[in-house]
Amino acid sequence: MHAEEEEEFQAFVRAHWTRLVRTAYLLTGDPHDAEDLTQTALAKAYRSWRRVSRSERPEAYVRRMLVTCNSDRFRKRRVPERLTGAPPDTAVQGDAAGEWVEERTALMAALAILPARQRAVVVLRYWEDLAEAEVAEVLGCSAGTVKSQASKGLAKLRACPGLARIMDRRWPVTADQGVRG
Fold first, then answer.
1. Of the candidates 127, 116, 38, 110, which has an alpha carbon nearest to the alpha carbon of residue 71?
2. Rounded distance between C-alpha atoms, residue 135 and residue 125, angstroms
3. What is the pLDDT of residues 44-69, one digit of tens each?
4. Please, are residues 69 and 36 in contact by the beta-carbon 8 Å criterion?
């Protein structure tokens, strides 16, 4: 790799590291696995940086590598998923800190029950805020598959008691509303 390409890759890593690690964390449920997964995906991106950098959206290309590397780790060996009490982000200060930790823990536990494909769809679609077509491109599937996996994943998340309690506390249903407002 030439010095110019090396600088371009390093700038890409600096600009996108945090977001890639957060996505990996939501896919793996473990901060250490998330960093390892991100490093693996970036190592693959480095080896083929010319092709990656010439793509229309290099971040999407690397995100797809991230999802693929996550799937590969399950093919090679079964990895038990462990959720931790300490998320990789900095802690919230003040009275909201306890609620934030409870919500984060409930979300991670709920995501852990989803199959890997549904979790990837939910994370990419609703956390990364990608369009259905973009998620389909990242996962190498049709937009219809993304819709069905998102629907099934969201239904499972809605059925999680911990998330339901949080939703009820944040957006209580009133008699005149009929829906969460």
1. 116
2. 6
3. 999 999 999 998 899 999 999 999 99
4. no
Tens digits of residue pLDDT in 78-126: 545 566 666 655 554 555 556 667 777 878 888 888 898 999 999 899 8
Tell me the two tokens of residue 113. 């029950």
CA distance 160 to 156: 7
The CA–CA distances, whole Å, from 99 to 21, 93, 166 equal 23, 11, 9
pLDDT of residue 105: 80
Residue with tokens 């911990």: 162
109: tokens are: 């536990």
Question: pTM for this one?
Answer: 0.57
Contact 29, 81 (CB under 8 A): yes
Nearest in space to 18 (alpha carbons), one of 59, 68, 73, 75: 59
For residue 131, give the nearest of 44, 57, 81 by alpha carbon: 57
Give the type of residue at 143.
A
Output the six-digit token pair for 39: 């490093």
